[in-house]
Design goal:
Blueprint: H1 19-27, E1 35-39, E2 42-46, H2 51-68, E3 73-84, E4 87-97, E5 113-118, H3 122-126, H4 128-135, E6 140-145, E7 150-157, E8 163-170, E9 174-175, E10 184-185
Parallel strand pairs: 5-6
Antiparallel strand pairs: 1-2, 3-4, 4-5, 6-7, 7-8, 9-10
Length: 187
């Protein structure tokens, strides 16, 4: 006698990585040969930067560094920033107090300025990252849109994500720097 049967379905529970897991992996060198972020508990491999991206990044780092002028601030590139328990983003450039521990991933509220250079990532930088950095209380967020030759300057982070204030400065226009009276200009 034939009996109907069902195929067993394998249902393994999905477990998200946490920001603490990501930080441990980072400290152990798991991402030494790649750029990665943790987004909603999932590891996301980031594409490598092209030469124009690196040049714009280096130029802006030098200009921002000049505005620090002896203040107790530090500047970093490709800095991991904790957004929440399941998300860690990597900012192209970040300015933060030099008193932060050097062996820990800082929280968003610890960062004074996060900058993304958007050569091919404009939608993500003005979308997901805009929401995440705002939700994490990063007080100042800039997106450098090289193709349009503008800088999107966001301030007043909102707890539910994003920013309440947004200005757009053209390349060549001075962009105010929160900790200095000296603006920076991109070209």
């Amino acid at each position: 006698m034939n009996h109907p049967f069902r195929l067993a379905e394998l249902q393994e529970p999905r477990v998200a990585f946490t920001a603490a897991d990501f930080e441990r992996m980072l400290k152990l060198g798991a991402f030494a040969d790649m750029r990665a972020e943790l987004v909603g508990g999932a590891l996301v491999k980031m594409m490598p930067a092209l030469p124009g991206h690196g040049e714009r990044n280096a130029t802006l780092v030098l200009r921002l560094h000049a505005t620090i002028n002896g203040q107790p601030l530090a500047i970093a590139t490709d800095l991991a920033i904790r957004i929440d328990d399941l998300t860690v983003r990597a900012a192209d450039i970040a300015i933060y107090p030099d008193t932060l521990p050097q062996d820990e991933v800082p929280d968003g509220a610890d960062i004074l300025l996060a900058v993304e250079i958007a050569d091919t990532t404009l939608a993500r930088d003005l979308g997901e990252k805009f929401a995440d950095y705002g939700r994490a209380a990063v007080p100042n967020y800039w997106v450098v849109d090289a193709a349009a030759r503008v800088v999107h300057v966001m301030t007043s982070p909102k707890p539910d994500g994003g920013y309440a204030d947004r200005q757009v400065a053209r390349f060549g226009d001075p962009v105010p720097v929160p900790w200095s009276d000296v603006p920076v200009t991109l070209d």
